[in-house]
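Private note to self, pasted from the team thread so I don't lose it. Backbone tokens:
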């Protein structure tokens, strides 16, 4: 499967409306927070209206705008209390960075944006990201700022009650990795089934056309 399937999947999501689409997916496979059943393969997204500039706070407490990062970006949305989906996604991004040649890795910025800013303070993000590639930038902000970025990226995120989780709640969310250009335009979208090798392939393709 390639970019054509990805474009169809994106159009289906946008046409159905995010809430309806995610409800349908979860009803089909009972896999909360994932669009894996749509199986979008890695590939060029064909100009889908996803992405854009934003300003948030990094893990060092500094204000950071996406325009300050003059690189291609690998972007993942999640939260530090996530038990499985987020560690898997961030580990995949780490493996991708390690698999790239040094000259190519220098042109890529991995970014982790929290969907749980109430708990994911800069200090929490800083400690959490020590388990992953040392070039990671972690971003948090106000609820309003995070909501705005989620809408830009068409990210699904919802709080759900969970008495076993810290503070009595967890987060249900999508698990895509976004490859964005230096101008914050979407290049490729990767699902949980895509491998680091597939991500590396698309990165190399993007860099060869830059």
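Design output:
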């Amino acid at each position: 499967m390639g970019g054509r399937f990805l474009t169809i999947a994106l159009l289906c999501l946008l046409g159905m409306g995010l809430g309806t689409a995610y409800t349908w997916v979860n009803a089909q496979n009972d896999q909360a927070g994932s669009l894996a059943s749509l199986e979008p393969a890695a590939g060029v997204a064909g100009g889908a209206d996803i992405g854009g500039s934003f300003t948030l706070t990094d893990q060092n407490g500094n204000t950071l705008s996406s325009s300050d990062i003059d690189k291609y970006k690998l972007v993942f949305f999640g939260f530090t209390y996530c038990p499985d989906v987020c560690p898997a996604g961030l580990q995949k991004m780490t493996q991708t960075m390690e698999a790239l040649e040094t000259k190519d890795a220098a042109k890529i910025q991995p970014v982790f944006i929290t969907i749980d800013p109430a708990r994911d303070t800069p200090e929490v993000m800083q400690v959490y990201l020590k388990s992953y590639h040392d070039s990671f930038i972690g971003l948090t902000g106000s609820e309003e700022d995070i909501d705005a970025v989620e809408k830009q990226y068409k990210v699904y995120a919802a709080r759900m009650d969970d008495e076993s989780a810290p503070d009595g709640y967890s987060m249900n969310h999508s698990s895509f990795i976004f490859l964005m250009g230096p101008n914050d335009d979407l290049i490729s979208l990767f699902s949980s089934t895509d491998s680091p090798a597939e991500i590396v392939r698309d990165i190399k393709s993007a860099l060869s056309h830059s």
